[in-house]
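Help wanted!
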Amino acid sequence: MNAYPLQMLDDWNDLKLVLAVAREGALTRAATSLQIDHSTVYRRLKAVEQRLGTRLFERSPGGDYCPTPAGAQVAAAAERIEAETQTLDRAVSGRDQRLSGRLKVTSSETLAYRMLTPEIARFRAANPGIQVELAVDNRVLSLSRREADIALRPIRPRENELWGRKIADVAWAIYAAKSLAPTDPADPFGGHPVIGWGEEVNNIGAADWVNRSASSERIVFRSSSLVNQFVAVRAGMGAALLPCYLGDGEPDLQRIGYPLSDLRGEMWIVTHSDLRTTARVRAFFDLVGEGLLAKRAMFEGLTDTITDK
Amino acid sequence: MNAYPLQMLDDWNDLKLVLAVAREGALTRAATSLQIDHSTVYRRLKAVEQRLGTRLFERSPGGDYCPTPAGAQVAAAAERIEAETQTLDRAVSGRDQRLSGRLKVTSSETLAYRMLTPEIARFRAANPGIQVELAVDNRVLSLSRREADIALRPIRPRENELWGRKIADVAWAIYAAKSLAPTDPADPFGGHPVIGWGEEVNNIGAADWVNRSASSERIVFRSSSLVNQFVAVRAGMGAALLPCYLGDGEPDLQRIGYPLSDLRGEMWIVTHSDLRTTARVRAFFDLVGEGLLAKRAMFEGLTDTITDK
DNA sequence: AAGCGGGCTTGCATGCCTGCAATGAATGCC
DNA sequence: GGCATTCATTGCAGGCATGCAAGCCCGCTT
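Answered by r_m:
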């Protein structure tokens, strides 16, 4: 004579499962997103539908799982629950005072390539208990969804649930290999062939500038990766617009002209405000933040002799 | 280089676990409420706290688990999630068009004793695929929390998330054993000793009436169970106020006086509005509802010869 | 003070769930 | 038209969480 509710959904993980299938539209993709096997998804979904007595997805041949009204309803609820757990996850992590555990950092390619790795090495030496995971990704990973704990970004964060500090201004300049003799001092690119961004790249200040300043036929090599552009410059392929912290550190390169005053960006180190009290996040902010701050001159293009004139 | 969020709470059932422990305040009780073993709760909670890096409960000796701020936060979120799943559970059950599965019905003691069981037998015969579970409980089980699918209640439902139909008015009268000779025709209890409710019973119309109408010393036997009172009447212990559907069916009893016009109640069959489209709920409403409706005269006290005068 | 009882903690064997791998089916592409 | 790819489905073996049972600690009672 118990009064316990008769729950069909007594396993809350089933909701997660349904959500994943609804999002991905296929068992296999849902499985990879959940980091479990296809067959498990298949069997558990079957069990859930049987228990509920309702079909949650319409199976099209070719493996297309389209949610039924019931399935959509379940997925919607699961989505709300997911948001709840994400908030909770950050909140409880904010109480974590251990200097151990995982720490996921994301940054742009170039920053990782030139500036960040030595700082992380220092951090690791000081905090051997913390496993650092560096996600180099030119996409902006979501700190709210906890795709990373800390981001190093070339833009000032707008969302006010984020929290961070400015590292430095970022100066940009044109670079070419020293072995390449300038042919036209009046041209911003020194008369060299130009290395630029992919045609499809928009809304990035540097890419827009290059597209405006060099005619399409001058651009002999395009890459959406700044590191690739950098390598191309070093190989003497032409001139490219690079952040000074990337170009100045390379002895074989030289600047063509001064840093471009209208391209100054800002480098920020950012976390979610819920995580700023987490011990390992704070430690990273302190150590790496200070380390990068010490290299401020590098970011701002003040180390090169040209600017000293 | 995955961009998957780093979730500490990747197992949503952990939230359920924490909620249960927070609610019960002890591992053992939490375990029974979850219908799993103590040791499992112990180990899983330990694992969760370790993964989160935060203590969720303060252990007092003597086994008192008091939530820390973090634990309270988790429990609060879990509570919201629970509400979400309960809503969802009803919603998806509302789509269940099978005439199979479980069906939990709750009713008062007396109704089950006298009227309901034969109806359920009829229902079972008509729907052999449905397992009926009858929770006889004088507490009002929550249909919203899905402690039952269907309730038979002696009061008109107030909450507008509930849905139901009125079966009949319920008449009450004083009954005594036929073997007991009435001593005082002017007294509502015929001069007999009185059988009444426990002193602590309030807010039940019948109980209040008896307490008002009979002095405390006249009441020779008290029980919070109407069925017990009924048995006592049958044993010749005295007179009691009983619903007519309970008293009239018993050949050894006789009414003392007419049904009390100021105690007419209403018998309702009720479900959650989300469940009214569920096939097995609808079937129960149709079959049992009709069956009880056919016995309306019994509820309204119209079968006894006294009222025919 | 000693016995008792409730609740937490831990070792051990079982069983279920999971991952793996093979099979089958369907679509798109060359 | 055949091949390659993607996805669903099912048999099978291993591992991990679970339940069971015993041990332990603490507070309460007599």
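OP: Thanks! One thing I noticed: Chain A has a mean pLDDT of 89.
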